[in-house]
Amino acid sequence: MMRQAIRGLMLLGFLVLVSSTGQAQLNNPDEVEVRDRKDGSTKKLRGHFRVGPAGFQVFTGEKFDKPGEAFSPDDIVKVTIGDLPGVNRDKINSANGKEGKGTRKDFDEARTIYQELLKELPKKAPDARSKRYLEFKFIMMTNKVVDGLDAGDAWEKQADECIGKWSGFLSDYKTGWELWPATRACTRLQIERGKYKEASETWKTLTTNPEMPADSKLEARLQVIDAQIRAKNYASASVNATELLKTAAGARKDRLTIYKIAAKAGIDNKPLDAVAKIQAEIDKTKEVSVRATGYTMIGEMYLVGGKPRDAMWAFLWVETVFNQDKNEVHKAIVRLTELFAKHLKDEDRTRAYEEKIKQFRTTF
Question: Where are the domains of the chain?
Answer without folding.
Answer: 14-83
